[in-house]
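Appendix C: a fully annotated inverse folding record. The material below is reproduced so that readers can follow the format used throughout the book. The structure is listed first as tokens, followed by the designed sequence.
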């Protein structure tokens, strides 16, 4: 058992460093790829649970735009297929976790309910609607 514990500890240490290196590389890639606030919103709302139509409605773009962005982002490696739902895409990390400013409506929504469902850094549908109504 001591050997298993040593291996597990080493894997945790390596994961910590890999995460740091990954985030360091991801931030400039996202800053280049996310050309405007709408793209930032599409990326932020792409949490793996939402359809392209849901993301489009939240971000204020068409579903075709979301599909194209998802295709481009998959090729770049800045998003992945959703492990939850086939055909849906998931960001690698919420923008706020990387220190990238969210557009005002998404920021307001996230801070309005910081301890609620979007507390993991992703803005929920209800939060976005609430922010847009304010």
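Designed amino acids, in order:
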């Amino acid at each position: 058992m001591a050997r298993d514990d040593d291996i597990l500890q080493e894997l945790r240490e390596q994961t910590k460093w890999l995460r740091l290196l990954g985030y360091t590389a991801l931030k400039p890639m996202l800053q280049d790829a996310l050309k405007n606030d709408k793209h930032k919103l599409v990326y932020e709302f792409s949490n793996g649970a939402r359809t392209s139509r849901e993301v489009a409605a939240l971000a204020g773009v068409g579903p075709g735009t979301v599909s194209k962005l998802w295709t481009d982002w998959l090729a770049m490696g800045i998003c992945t297929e959703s492990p939850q739902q086939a055909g849906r895409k998931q960001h690698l990390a919420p923008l706020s976790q990387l220190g990238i400013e969210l557009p005002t409506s998404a920021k307001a929504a996230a801070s309005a309910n910081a301890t609620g469902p979007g507390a993991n850094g992703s803005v929920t549908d209800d939060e976005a609607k609430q922010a847009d109504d304010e």
